[in-house]
Amino acid sequence: MLLEIPEQAALRWLAPRTPRWVTPDLLTGIGFFAAILSAVSYGLTILSPWFLWLASFGWVLNWFGDSLDGTLARHRREERPKYGFFIDHSLDVLGGFLIGAGIGLSPYVRFDFAMVALSGYLLMSVSVYVRLHVTGIFQMTYSRIGTTEIRIFVILVNTLIFFIGNPRVSTFIGDTTVYDVIALFFGITLIATFVVVTLVVGARLRKSESR
Questions:
Q1: Tens digit of pLDDT for each residue in 34-89?
Q2: Residue 30's domain spans which residues?
Q3: Domains: count for the chain
């Protein structure tokens, strides 16, 4: 990942300084609550664009809870690999679904375009977990872009929307907005990545099992 080194350094610094009453399960819950906060905030932007700042805070809080829970568990030697993996990633997918729906209900992105982006996210989630099952490889980063980089990008987009609004542009899909185009591009990119990964990994598995 582009930010892997500073991110891991920050997590290693935070883990030993986290109070004992803060547990990995609590951090997982904080991450999921933050996803709900962002989702609701996007929906409330129909009332005021100021809710974009609350949505961005939700993204930061989501990173804190979702990234630190595993690091803290390993630091305290409290790992529960199966339970932790299952709960953490189940809530990640549910949180992503809620955020995608919230963005689609905002006045900034068409609901159908938001659903394309959400579909791409869900497809890639399926790809990551199925690939882990059949190959033992857990890969959530492609072209050095992972969830942390995506969070930062979305926060930057929120900031731009707040300051410059939602400018309309003419594209091959007709008269739309800049942020419609971003959502559609994000979704199509994820769907295309899913197809490519499926073909490449499928070909490797077929070759390995044809011997």
A1: 999 999 999 999 999 999 999 999 999 999 999 999 999 999 998 898 898 899 99
A2: 4-208
A3: 1
Q: What is the pTM of this model?
A: 0.91
d(C-alpha 39, C-alpha 10), whole Å: 26
Tell whether the torsion through CA atoms of 186, 191, 195 and 201 is positive or negative. Answer: positive
- 103 to 47, 107, 117, 155: CA distances (angstroms): 14, 8, 10, 13
Report the half-sphere exposure of 123 (CA within 13 A, side-chain side): 19
Number of neighbours of residue 150 by Cβ within 10 angstroms:
13
Q: The CATH number of the domain where 140 resides is what?
A: 1.20.120.1760
